[in-house]
Amino acid sequence: MASHIVGYPRMGPKRELKFALESFWDGKSSAEDLQKVSADLRSSIWKQMADAGIKHIPSNTFSYYDQVLDTTALLGAVPPRYGWNGGEIGFDTYFSMARGNASVPAMEMTKWFDTNYHFIVPELGPDVNFSYASHKAVEEYKEAKALGVDTVPVLVGPVSYLLLSKPAKGVEKTFSLLSLLPKILPIYKEVVSELKAAGASWIQFDEPTLVLDLESDKLQAFTGAYSELESALSGLNVLIETYFADVPAAAFKTLTSLKGVTAYGFDLVRGTKTLDLIKSKFPKGKYLFAGVVDGRNIWANDLCASLSTLETLEGIVGKDKLVVSTSTSLLHTAVDLVNETKLDQEIKSWLAFAAQKIIEVNALAKALAGHKDEAFFSANAAAQASRKSSPRVTNEAVQKAAAALKDSDHRRATNVSARLDAQQKKLNLPILPTTTIGSFPQTIELRRVRREYKAKKISEEEYVKAIKEEINKVVKLQEELDIDVLVHGEPERNDMVEYFGEQLSGFAFTANGWVQSYGSRCVKPPIIYGDVSRPKPMTVFWSCAAQSMTARPMKGMLTGPVTILNWSFVRNDQPRFETTFQIALAIKDEVEDLEKAGISVIQIDEAALREGLPLRKSEHAFYLDWAVHSFRITNSGVQDTTQIHTHMCYSNFNDIIHSIIDMDADVITIENSRSDEKLLSVFREGVKYGAGIGPGVYDIHSPRIPSTDEIADRINKMLAVLETNILWVNPDCGLKTRKYPEVKPALSNMVAAAKLLRTQLASAK
């Protein structure tokens, strides 16, 4: 019985790639150094899978930034502003597209489906001159083969690539991106031809857009594309991989009718309804890659249940046509549980990271082939039983309180317009008030202080003194820059979700459970294993300390319940909304304590609210109802004079703008500049927004420093569609990933632009 892995984490067990990338970007190491670290990681990954007995091992899933940007490089689809003149795309052009450079901004970045992983959005139009400009897929296949590992090269499928793209600036928004298929398919044919010549016997096309609600013309594009590729693919086994959700019936029919395709991969963890389609309509003689091991969470597989599912599928497709697989790439989970030497042993027994999931896949394949490892299955069953019966999972008081929330919609008693008037009388802010989103640069010294405190190398008194000094430095800087509403910079926090999870019951934490978010940015999601509550205040001490350092308003900084949920590894033994309501109650307690302590502006970030939106439209309303309700729970009890902010970033918000309005926040700051001001289009189309709003005026994920005139131009575009009295001026997101030599001039220019516009508006009266 064969086994398969859709994809694997790239960063390495100790984030080796992250540090190599940042060293290269900072000019401290060479391209050769970066390439060596990368080659060592790939070699280790391929060997690990081969040693575990995996038959279908992926290649070309490694990336220096993301797989969609890799495909843009492969196709030579470089926007003209980067000055690329043809030939093989090198690091300078590649990283300029991802991060921008001193003279031009980066391309848009957005979330990869409903995950916290990001990709760089291709900018396409009728005048793009596609060319075969990156041979990475072929080179990595050859690299693995030289190591004795015959891999399955993985490519982002041509139709999904175009559907995930956007019309370039200056191209009509109605331009059909799928009309570019005839231009890119010849390049795909070249790649396939080279892979065949190199000895490849399998090839995997990732076409995850097949799980979306696609119109008939988009489904027909799949039919046309693979018909065109059929002759080039002849002699290869071709796998079309889907993931993240059920494949709709119409898409399933299209997929299983594609010419030249010999295998289909399905996510049978999040796409359980696909099982019914497989049982009734799976084509004879084709391979089924059954994704029964969860690639997006860290819970150990229920091997007995998965084996039962696989035995049913074996009866449908045949023993020789069934391949055991992960549900998605393992990119979305942590690397190796072996590295967690301090994790509670009972909780650890409930978990499986990427390395363990490889073993689970192989164990299931062997069991199907009649070689069941009874000891392994027995240990797994014991861990499943332990988790179900453990008293640490359940808190009846929390469950009762969360259940009672359904009896109210938790709206503030006064409408937002009246609240804003009351808040302005208290805060006395200028028009176009300036603020930042929360975090300030995390310096090497600051990280050292936190690390030494955790390791008990410095006392609590020394730690508090160091953090207060950092807060004071950030406060003074903001006052010097003349920012209106301040933040304390979050020096006590390594990660916005991890910080809160460490102080809430029902959470567990890893030492090395890092997951890539984008580029070199890694996060360490907490594990929600049980019912959630707040034992004591979490941020009040630091917020009060910061407020005592200034007469200006100081924001209390919290992470919202939906974002904590979506950026954690979440328990899978109860509905997600129940867990979110529990978190909302904990955040509500914190909001009310901040208000009692005199904090007048409280930001409750919901950066990931849009990220969690289900991929199928039929499921949107239910999700948005409980997600928005959860946010309102957190702040429904505050006074009118307490100003509630929220923040959202790096997703397409236009389609949920009415739900954002329904959150009833007093002020929302929202990513805008990196996405080419896409957000403003909803207001041009007539959506009325009465609360305060701060569309980001510059991209913080690029080292580039915008000029005062550039920011002023952005603000003017906002003023064309938004009322002056509701507009705030702020960056796209938090400043944690930037350095002070970038932050200071960028914020200085931002404040100067706001003042320039204030003067112009005053003189125009």
From TrEMBL:
Alphabetical GO biological process terms: methylation
Cofactor binding remark: Binds 2 Zn(2+) ions per subunit.
One Pfam family named in its UniProt record: Meth_synt_2
Zinc recorded as keyword: yes
Pathway(s) the chain acts in: Amino-acid biosynthesis; L-methionine biosynthesis via de novo pathway; L-methionine from L-homocysteine (MetE route): step 1/1
Annotated TM spans: none
Binding sites annotated in the UniProt record for Zn(2+) 2: 658, 662
Keyword terms: Amino-acid biosynthesis, Metal-binding, Methionine biosynthesis, Methyltransferase, Transferase, Zinc
Protein origin, superkingdom: Eukaryota
GO MF annotation, one: methionine synthase activity
Reactions catalysed: 5-methyltetrahydropteroyltri-L-glutamate + L-homocysteine = tetrahydropteroyltri-L-glutamate + L-methionine
UniProt domain Cobalamin-independent methionine synthase MetE C-terminal/archaeal: residue ranges: 432-755
Record-listed E.C. numbers: 2.1.1.14
Start and end residues of each Cobalamin-independent methionine synthase MetE N-terminal domain: 3-315
Enzyme class: transferase
Positions contributing to 5-methyltetrahydropteroyltri-L-glutamate binding: 18, 116, 521-522, 567
Cofactor(s) needed for function: Zn(2+)
Keyword Transcription carried by entry: no
Binding site for Zn(2+) 1: 647, 649, 671, 733
InterPro entries named among the record's database cross-references: Cbl-indep_Met_Synth_N (IPR013215), Cobalamin-indep_Met_synthase (IPR006276), Met_Synth_C/arc (IPR002629), UROD/MetE-like_sf (IPR038071)
Binding-site residues, L-methionine: 437-439, 490, 605
Cited PANTHER family: 5-METHYLTETRAHYDROPTEROYLTRIGLUTAMATE--HOMOCYSTEINE METHYLTRANSFERASE
Function: Catalyzes the transfer of a methyl group from 5-methyltetrahydrofolate to homocysteine resulting in methionine formation.
HAMAP family found in the cross-reference section: Meth_synth (MF_00172)
Family classification: Belongs to the vitamin-B12 independent methionine synthase family.
Protein name in UniProt: 5-methyltetrahydropteroyltriglutamate--homocysteine S-methyltransferase
